[in-house]
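Feature request disguised as a bug report, sorry. It would help if multi-protein outputs had a clear separator. Right now it looks like this:
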Amino acid sequence: MGTNAKRRRERRRRNSNKPIDGNDWLEQLPGVLTIPAVDDDTYPEPAALLAEVIDQYLNSREFNGLPVGESSGLHTNAKALIRGGLLQLVTSTDYLNTHIRPWLRSDVDRQVAELPQVSAGVLTGCLYPTQRAMEVYAPNLSHTHPYRDRMMMGSGTLDLAFFDLAAVEGYVNDPSFAFEFGDDGFRLATATGYDYADDDLLSLEAGYAYDHTVDYRGDEPIRRYWTAFLCDLVDLPARHQTRLSTFELDGRNLSAHPDWWERLIGGRWLDHIGPFTKILCELKAINEVWNIAFQSDLLKTVERPRAWGWVLRPTTGSWNEFIHLTDKLLSDNLMPKGLDAAGAPKTNSQGDTVGTLGRLQELILTSSSATTPEGVKSILEPLRRVRAERQAPAHKIEDTVTDRNVVNRQRDLLRDIASSLDAIRFFVQTHPAVRAYGWAPPDYLDRWRWL
């Protein structure tokens, strides 16, 4: 190692133990960074400005725009390019972060009117090439990353692409991917513990989408899809981009789930929950009050099964799988030990031995003077319906067929199950030990939506 290198290493060693003086650091900073102007003095020719904007767009980290610096000069060329449909001005009246272009805009009069405000420092703004400009420029497309190619051609960062739900079936069923269902969308990523190359790592958050011409509260078959922002699709590995593009749909009449949109774009904390979360939260609440009243859990698990969510295909096979997983969370999830702790009878009024659901029914009947056998049966009927539906496919062989009403059936069954669990929790909540403890349900348990 040379003498100069040794001296640099020694200086770094000494400085690493030296306390940092903020003033010393500030003195080493350059002057205030200035954003170059885009006026006619800086770019005398419109072609030069357009080339600079395109260069910034293609070579920046995330297809960023060219910032518009303050200037009192003329902006004839910039205005002409905007009016000619070759440049788009994104200002802080469009979107807070002007360094990304969220959506394409064709309101050129508004853009031209706001350019002087940006150059005066009243607003912030960046210039972007339009799709028309990129078609003329014709950048080298990869053809292996269709969504990155689409961004290169001038699409908006927050443009939505819509897909058939069948596109994600392979990810749900493949353990090398972590797949998390939600009420308004899902998350997908490569699972840990697998040997993936860096350029093959996958991470995506997507939302459900619906055909908004169908009333989700009615009887007409609900048509469901999924959607993702273009900026989230851009960085997916090539093979995934190519595969997903084969499932892409025309987005006309399709709308993203409003809760997903509000969370990601509106930046809002939602004050309500969806049906799957409602059921899981009710299961957790039942275990909490059961422990307070009887010092035991009633349910073996309150965790969400990996594949428990909105069906991906409108088929009888998908419905049967959903029923199977739902029953594992309900009747199959009841623990005899928890019922024993509560003193639940093992026989009914006729002396017949009963299963876990029957024991729960007898417990409610014998513990409350305000209930009737018909009323308790009505409360537990959704759970029995799930058990009966689960057992039916086990005793016959049939081909999977299309059932366009599957999502409607899911919607209605989830609503009924949630009401059933709500009533069970309320029953245990009236136990003297629970009332003395002062337990109260979270507010959000009563604020939930069906779909």
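(second protein starts here, but nothing in the output says so)
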Amino acid sequence: MNALRHVLHRPAAPPTPTLLLRLGALVLGSDPALALTGRRCVPGALTSTGFEFAFPDLDSALRDLLASGS
């Protein structure tokens, strides 16, 4: 969300209380861990074979998505 706010030139948002996230996850039938914990994924199998991403970072991917949607 921080990267999306940065690309959209929006101010930082106050953190959502954990209780509200858990309640929202219960209503949506989702796992609250999706919002409460971070994930860092590295495409080691792809990069070790020489694969190059068109957008190697989130900011450039978001900028492209937002530019193509307007």
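Even a blank line would do. Unrelated, but nice: Residues 18-28 form the longest helix (11 residues).
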